[in-house]
Amino acid sequence: MNDRRAFDRRTFLVAGAASLATVAMTPALPAAAAPVESPVAAPALLRGGLNAQTRRFDTRQVRGWAADTWRSLVAMTDPRTGLPADNITEGLSVGERSGYTSPTNIGGYLWSTLVARELGLISRGEATGRLIRTLKTLDRMEHHAPSGMYYNWYDEATGKALRTWPDSGDVIHPFCSSVDNGWLGAALLTVKNADRGAAHWASKAFDRMRWDAFYNDNSDPEHLVREGGLIHGGFFPFDHDRPGGVYRGTHVGGEPVWLTTHHYDTVVSETRITTYLGIITGQIPGKQYYASWRTFPASCDWSWHEMQPVGESRTYFGLDVYEGAYTYRGMRIVPGWGGSMFEELMPDVFVPEARWAPGSWGRNHPLHVRAQREHGLDEAGYGYWGFSPSSNPAGGYREYGVDALGLNPDGYLSDQEGTNFDPGFGDCRPATNPTPTYGDGVVTPHAAFLAMMHEPAEAFTNLANIQRDFDAYGRGGFFDAVAVRSGTVSRRHLSLDQAMVMGAIGNVLCDGVVRRGFATRAVENRLRPVIGIERFGAGRA
Question: Where is average pLDDT lowest: 18-22, 343-347, 398-402?
Fold first, then answer.
């Protein structure tokens, strides 16, 4: 089994803050696998008006939230390079910028600029100017030339790759992360299709990116993974100080690099955006999507994971897939590793997963959102909801989530006390804490904004309540997280989290602007036949 526990989102994204190539088409959708109706109807994106499910949704207020969120992103961005800092504190002054950025942060600023344009916060000319400035800087930044992939950390004021941390002086060994570059690549493809003036520069960067650089296709008998192949966590292009967990090799030619022995192996994960990009460009086969676990097996020799799943096996692209799901509050849900909104919904900002794959994501996304809401309001009794990795109100950074929605037995937990839900594993392992009493729950606004793409009214009410009840809002929009019982607020803005806010609002208020930019007809023709045939085990229990 691949050890996911050694890596997490912020290993690649904010460690210092808490620091279409032409190919044969993929197979057509078989007649026997016609789209399956979702058992939970997800509301349509808003198109100039509000449907019955969104009557408590105040468009003007959401636009105001977007304007303030954009202010924080502008404050984070160096006007000479067009690169956003990783984070900034509430004062929004130049001196409060973090001093470093990542490919994910740069991608987030790019798609946020498109949303700001569509909302009328900036003119089309200003938007194009901002995009070109950032992309020209990106073009001259040091990167791994054989793959076209960027390193993990750069100075936002100069664009230089960092070799030491700005605050501590600790050594940084450049690392090319599959997740980090995935979000940058998604942004580049979106800009390429959505802004004519910046398209040349976006294409230049996107077209040289080799997603197969991260794809272990099992061609090396000494480093075999699951049938169908998996995505590496990434690679070190230079020698480094990491003891173990890597091997010398290359999937795209050039000098060998140090590839991680860690691979992403669950489908409810942010790394599926990297798989999507590989499928879209023809660099990764569609079967790789089905190599990832939906859940781990239900047998007793796998009883270490969170709970015993239910489901059946099906075959896609010649691979046997166990369509397992976890049972929670009358729902069957395909879990992520930690049970966070980011894992579930971030790729959905770009790909209309619920529409293209109604039998899988069309079931799971609404149920995941409902489960997060019910956990916060009913099970834990916090009064608020939205759980995802964020700033820790007590300091630093931490993964938060709904434990029951994650495979990780140690959990991404929803409160400061680390209350661990343990329902046991059928007859294999007894329950130790099936009905926990929760403490100081931590909610992060970006999770509720992501949920707005599926429950607009409920998400709006939740966010309005957070703004009303806590000192959780400033000139730059919502602060990153709130511990709701103590009222402790993390009074800073993270550029990726603010970009998730902008992306979700853009999809809800601007006719799916981010999805329209990314999910073109060409993209749909390649990706939809792959993901659209699947039926998850998700649904009513």
Answer: 18-22
Distance from C-alpha of 69 to C-alpha of 65, rounded to nearest angstrom:
6
Residue type, position 66, single letter: A
Q: What is the pTM of this model?
A: 0.91
- How many residues are there in the chain? 541
* Element spanning 321, H or E: strand 319-328
**DSSP character for 520?**
-
- Beta-strand ranges (E) seen in 161-226 are 176-177, 215-216
Query: Are the C-beta atoms of residues 415 and 436 closer than 8 Å to each other?
Result: no
DSSP bridge partners of 429: 425
Tokens of 509: 């208020």
How is residue 294 written in tokens? 């939906």
Of 278, 103, 84, 279, which Cα lies nearest the Cα of 184?
103
**pLDDT at residue 51 greater than cutoff 70:** no
Question: What is the distance between the alpha carbons of residues 355 and 358, in angstroms, rounded to a whole number?
Answer: 6
**What's the pLDDT tens digit per position in 336-359?**
999 999 999 999 999 999 999 999
CA distance 256 to 236: 10
Q: What is the pLDDT of residue 244?
A: 85
**Which element (helix H / strand E) includes 488?**
strand 488-490
Q: Is the dihedral of CA 339, 340, 345, 347 positive or negative?
A: negative
Are 114 and 134 a contacting pair, CB within 8 Å?
Answer: no
